[in-house]
Amino acid sequence: MAGMHSAGIGLSLEKRPPARTRDAMTAAVSAPPARAALPPTAPQRPVTPPVTPPVTPLNPAKFRDPARTAKGEERATVTLQRLETLWLNTGTLCNITCANCYIESSPRNDSLAYLRRDEAASYLAEIRALGLPTREIGLTGGEPFMNPDILGILEDGLEAGFHLLVLTNAMRPMQRHQAALLRLKARFGARLGLRVSMDHYSRAVHEAERGPRTWEPMLKGLRWLADNGFAPAVAGRGLSGEGLADLRAGYGRLFAALGMALAVDDPARLVLFPEMDARQDVPEVSTGCWDILGKRPEQMMCATSRMVVKRKGTERPALVACTLLPHDPQFELGTTLAGARPTVALNHPHCAKFCVLGGASCSA
Description:
Elements: H1 19-30, E1 77-79, E2 85-89, H2 117-130, E3 136-140, H3 150-159, E4 163-168, H4 172-175, H5 178-188, E5 192-197, H6 203-210, H7 215-227, E6 233-237, H8 244-258, E7 270-273, H9 289-293, E8 305-309, E9 318-320, E10 332-334, E11 343-345, H10 349-357
Parallel strand pairs: 2-3, 2-8, 3-4, 4-5, 5-6, 6-7
Antiparallel strand pairs: 1-11, 8-9, 9-10
Helix pairs in contact: 1-6, 2-3, 3-5
């Protein structure tokens, strides 16, 4: 964004999806439509891939210096204002492999190891000891329900009085814990929240990203959550090139056909994330951009949240700036909440595309 004019600045879900996802999606939507287990009268509209010009590769001079942009301008930074949300990464292992997973989760990638129950508990205890204003604990992966300590981690967080938000694909790893989830819900009610990843309201586009035979198991898990009073949220993505209004309308038709009362116009219940591709060119964020965009550093996700990760082969977990950048060492801030570096330089394409321009946040 350094050196940009204010006109036309912004990120929408009409941006082009990453190449490998786009190619898979094109093949999926041009094939005969595969129907989900929906009522025969469910409204179905064709989804076609967007026609957009080729993407511009990221300028290799950008995002090299944490202090200066490629144009020599002072890079924007964000300082932690208050820790409202602490994310726990439960590990990168997942039961599926998505075409464009920002954290590169898969059934084989264990670069982020399973976070143990006692390790998670130590951060909850530190929040209390420091008197931090944290109200939400988020759990992400990988697939959190593959972590063997997940139920204990959930119980500890809920017993400590936090609201929990678990990001899940709602497939078999979650479904095998149905009885335990019902027990937790009976004890702690709405403080246990779950957000289900549904990349699109159509099976074709969802499975182009997540792989074949992922749609029906996801719907089964989502419907189980809804039927049992969990009031799940849903997270979608801008894979198809549709605008926000069309996406929300499409999800609305699907949920109506499923008999689910999910408020698609509520951004907390249906979260629509912008697509991210670190290989695609994006403006850098200089200090002068805040006024151009009418935004402030304290509005960014890293002003109110941090994430705990456990790197494979390391002795103890570490804190990173946000959920999007678990692998980049420049965003590792320390091992304790008290000792973690508070200020983050916005020195990655995701900082610009997801947070500053996209205005998105992973928290509830």
